[in-house]
Amino acid sequence: MKQKFFALTILLIVFLSLAGVVQAEMYGEEALAKQIVVDKEVKFPGKTDFQDHLTASQATFVADNEVEFRLIVKNSGEETLKNIEVFDYLPDDINFTACSDDCEWKGKQLQWKIGELKAGEGKQFNIRAKVAGGEQIKGKGLFCITNWAKARAESGHQDENGSQFCIDARILGAAIPEAGFNFLAAAAAAALLGGAGLFLKKQN
Asked: Do 153 and 121 contact (CB within 8 A), yes or no?
């Protein structure tokens, strides 16, 4: 009986020790992640504000439209972070056009380097891209994609964040308003009516 009790006690101690190690590792990873925060946003088309995500019901981009992103990397901890690498990964059907702070551009990947960020400090980067042409997205209908960004410091602290937006491949080129007063059509109609009036006057 004593041997069984002793064995069970040993097993319980081993189990609690392993659980403590796993929990410590989990909390340690969480603490590392919280030291640096990445916030990725996309600009609302036709406006000045940025949002975390744009659903298809809010706004859609079409072929050849410009898309602007804002990427913010912040040190949310209490210690200075050094030698931070920042990456941005453009999704398919989006082509790079420009970036701030002399980024390094390789294919679909953009990269910046930050020497250090003191506690509470942040750094902002801006990216401009363009939706692919109509031939490239032809037949894809209405679809949504995500632009991901990641930051990693030499200390191991890292974080990533993405911003989703939607493309309507059913519309080629600039979006056409579904409703509203069409000035050109009205002008053409007025010209036709005016011409018809003059013709009637001459006939009379």
From this structure: no
Q: Tell me the backbone φ, ψ of residue 91, rounded to 5 degrees.
A: -75, 170
By C-alpha distance, which of 120, 143, 55, 124 is closest to 86? 124
* Per-position DSSP letters for 14-59, written without gaps between them: HHHHHHHHHHHHHHHHHHHHHTEEEEEEEEPTTSS-EES---TTT-
Q: Round to whole Å and give the CA distance between 110 and 136.
A: 22
User: pTM for the full model?
Assistant: 0.69
CB-side exposure of 34: number of CA atoms within 13 Å? Answer: 8
Residue 178's CB is within 10 A of a number of other CB atoms, namely 5
Q: Averaged over 35-47, what is the pLDDT? A: 95
Kindly report which listed range (35-44, 48-57, 111-120, 186-195) carries the lowest average pLDDT score.
186-195
> Picking from 7-11, 47-51, 115-119, which range would have the lowest pLDDT averaged per residue?
7-11
Mean pLDDT score, 29-37: 67
The alpha carbons of the chain give a radius of gyration, in whole angstroms, of 29
